[in-house]
Amino acid sequence: MKKKIFVFFPDGVGLRNFAFTDFKQIGENMGYDIHYWNNTVFSLKDNLGFEEVRIENHQIHSLTPLYSRARKRIELNVSEKKFNDKVYPTYKFPFNNNGLKNKLKSIYTKLLIGLYNSEKGIERIRKKINDLERSTSKYAYCKAQLLEHKPDLVFCTTQRSTQSISALLAAQDLGIQTVAFVYSWDNVPKAMQVVETDYYFVWSDLMKAQVLQYYPFVKEEQVFVTGTPQFEPHFDLNLKETRNDFFKQYNLDINKKYICYSGDDETTSPLDQYYLEDLAYAVRNLNSKGYNLGIIYRKCPVDFTNRYDAIIESNKDVIEVLDPIWKQVGTMWNEVLPAKEDFKMLYNVCAHSEFVTNVCSSTVFDFVTHNKPCIYYNYEQPQLKKGIRDIGQNYKYVHFRSMPSENAAVFCTNKNDLEELVQQILDDKLSNVEEGLKWFEIVAGETPTKASEHIWKAIKNILA
């Protein structure tokens, strides 16, 4: 009899990895009965024809967000003290004191931090969150679904969503094995592990070491290194279009060489539009010297601001906008969901651009899989003032310490150097690809094309 697996989407961030890749097909070929346990507004049945069990009750306990915020800050406090490292406070978002309701929430969160601010306190606050979520109607609702469908294992596609807590607790209380996939390369040091599951799947040996370092309650045998399906499409040659076809589809000039500017969200890079402006200035200068260059601007899919508009308009002779193919199906950032067609678009943006520039984005890895360099901006803009976050702190984060050398990306530390760096890359005198590929292996594992297969093999091991 086939083992039944619930692939659980507490939110939409896992769709790209686990619905739009070959993940499901690989699992079915290995003999699993796969159902998607869907807490999102995206219908997998209507859009993809997948078997799904919809979770219609989305009500987490009203105190869970406050306890979760407190837990995150306490974990960062503990890490700062434990590792004697001032990077951890920089992961904290400021408290929201806009309006009486938010002020009261902030006061309550601060009280919780004062009450639980220790490693033992983290254990108590996690237990409190679990008790709160077990008391909800959503817990009872999810438990009833599990009793009806009787899966052998629940695979949660992200470890960082409070929407997943009650569902996973219901599974554990019924004796159903649970697994959480650690979603992103920077999540572990940032105290983003919201759930506690029986097993954890991670991208690499580096990430496994981090899980064990930051979460002493996790045992080594609970952590499986699988890789991530995130990069698998970059190795799928079926996605590649000819340069002529791609340029024709998006009205690009076949005679130009294009540089990709990959936009960032406003939190990470609040002055991001000015780096795009700097690149446009450098491109225009190089064009006056005989180059024939353009810029492909691909925005961050969850950036809803109009902050780039004026700069794009004033530089429309060199900037072409190719928006990612994502669909907004709700009002929250995690309700902006990718379309499967975006895999093809991103593949060909990487394949047909000369290189990428951005502020600290993981697109360095997307492009390096196509042997294309990356420039990271790392200088302050003159518009920086008190209350605006300096991008420089991004490169001090723990996940950037995984770089095998400072040459794993091309860092532009002075605006006046940008034109020269662009020219050197175009003239094949400068590249980070060799070191970038080493960095990619450290972060994403040794077999990036086999991640889905490794996940299913790990599930088989667990269920054996």
From TrEMBL:
**What protein name does the entry list?**
UDP-glycosyltransferase
Q: What SUPFAM superfamilies does UniProt report for this protein, alphabetically?
A: UDP-Glycosyltransferase/glycogen phosphorylase
Gene3D superfamilies for the chain: 3.40.50.12580
- What is the top-level taxon of the source organism? Bacteria
